[in-house]
Amino acid sequence: MPDTPMDRLARATPQQLSRRVRGLSDRAIAWVFVAPTILLLLAINIFPLIWTIRLSFTNYAANKPNAEVKWVGLRNYQRILTDPDIWATMQATAHFLIWTIVFQVILGFGLAWLINRKFKGNDLLTTLIVLPMMLSPAVVGNFWTFLYEPQIGLFNYAVEALTGIPASSFTMLGSVPLAPWAIVIVDTWMWTPFVMLICLAGLRSIPDYIYEAAEVDRASKWRQFWTMTVPMVLPFLMLAVLFRGIENFKMFDLVVQLTGGGPGDTTLLTSIELKREAFEKWRTGYSSAYAIILFVTVFGLASIYVKALNKVKDR
Amino acid sequence: MSAVSITEPTRRSKWVAGILVGLYTVITLLPLLWIISTGFKTGPDSISYPPKILFSPSLEGYVNLFTTRTRATAEQLATMPPPENWVDEIVQRRDEVIIGPSRYGERFMNSVIIGFGSTFLSIFLGTLAAYAFSRFRVPLKDDLMFFILSTRMMPPIAVAIPIFLMFRQLGLSDTHLGMILLYTGVNISLAVWLLKGFIDEIPREYEEAALIDGYTRFQAFRKVVLPQAATGIASTAIFCLIFAWNEYAFAVLLTSGNAQTAPPFIPTIIGVGGKDWPAVAAGATLFLLPVMIFTILLRKHLLRGITFGAVRK
Question: Can you give the residue ranges of the ABC transmembrane type-1 domain (chain B) (predicted)?
Fold first, then answer.
């Protein structure tokens, strides 16, 4: 390599000095660039979280700022964990989580698998399919209440047209057995595209030569699908499930608009119950303890899941 | 890739795939088309059964969305001058008089201010942090990156109460600035992670050349890295904007009048006798339209952004 005078000059200048002369040192720049983000996260996320933990040990009520605040120890936690109604909301949440994930995985993977065939116009269709997940869940959820109206809504009309069950004979949002399914349908409609996109990224990451080798070995298409396609997409699929799981565990906007927790308490998901305790009954201390329990649950489940995910990845 | 690959799907399977995906697309777009078309129906048309697919379009929903009206008294009806324009005509036909503008315009503007404000701030701070994480030896880099990501796992309601109390203390509750800071705090984790991925892909040699030419680090960042990262910054910005535009939980819990955005407001639009679905649909259409247009225009970048995140994490 030819040694130019500039190169020699650059080497002659002490590194430290050259940086110092030309302005802030790299280390200082790194601090100046990172600090605002960290400070903001501490102020908006961490400080409130620590505050929540502190409140969870008290009987504080945010609508009575002047009342005396008593330290109640673990009593809030004890009350929540022994309350049978809480377990009912947990069950409703689990039902919602399991079914949305089942439907979204089947539909999302199926669509990605079809789109990966690279037929004409698949780019346009992908974009159109993705639209629902880009929209506001609250606004869309509100409009779905209109689609679900038994007398005038499009949904019941479509069901009648397809199956012959009279449209006015059932109300999706007003009946105890159907309401949970009504929110599962809307969530699946909104978020299947997300699972589809992640699966598509997984499918596109599989190199062609693997299939070519399999063809040479005369492996059947079915065998190729189960021994190559599925295992290679699985880490991506599990990642999509992780994201959807976390999001759906804290799902609020869509369900508030669709059912608000009713009829009865059939669709009372944990986040809606939490909102009622915190901002309707104003039991701030109690709801803080509830929030912490939920946070720990999500964090715990997510960590276990991520461990499993890493195992699948390493395989 | 060879010209004739043995793994290339057959023509028939492409056809079948195209038809199935097309069918799904039609079904999935029906609710959206229904929102848009309901916005152009009259009140009776919107609630007729069976649902009306063909109807004569009307701007009644849009007029109702932007105005507050009241039923005209018999006196008013008798003395009412003939309608001067199409807005008056629509209102008078329903025996109503306009008593003022509605609050939709304000709410929409709040969404614009808070959405763009927080997007700008997230991108500004996020780009700086992402650059530092990408290029410098930051102490505890991996731990900090994970910490930044973990803030996204927090359910909004878990921190809503202290934020509510904190904002009340600081005089930030129900203000634009408060909501901008809040949404920036939520978005910044995504911004840092996405942007770091984009900046990692820019070769370091470009900056090193600039440094040798006598640029300071900061000048090299501004004049060399930023232009290279422009596409990545733009697609990250769209994600931040979509989140802030659509957010509901914080908006409904922490704002009441002054700084409330459109998502909590649209469901509360009601007409004279019950829910005015054409007006709700009109409000929803105007609110959803920017995101739909963004998505279609910038589809390549958006889709890349999402899958990128999946691959990196």
Answer: 108-298
